[in-house]
Amino acid sequence: MSAGTEGAGPKVRVRLAPTPSGALHAGNAYSFLLAWLWARHQGGSVVLRIEDVDTTRARPDWIEAVFRDLEWLGLDWDEGPAGPDDVTSSYRQSSPDRQARYAALWTRWANEGLLYPCRCTRADLRTDAPQVERIGDDLPPGVPYSGRCRQRTISDASSVDAWRLRLPSRSSEFTDGWMGARRLDDMSALGDPVLRRGDGCTAYHLAVCVDDFDQGITHVVRGRDLLGFAHLHLHLHELFANSCPPVFLHHGLLGDEQGARLAKRIGSGSLTDLRRSGFDPRVLIGRLAPLVFPGTFPSLEPCTARDLLAFGAPRPSGADQTFSVKPYMECP
Question: Which residues of the chain are under the pLDDT cut of 50?
Answer without folding.
Answer: 1-8, 265-268, 331-332
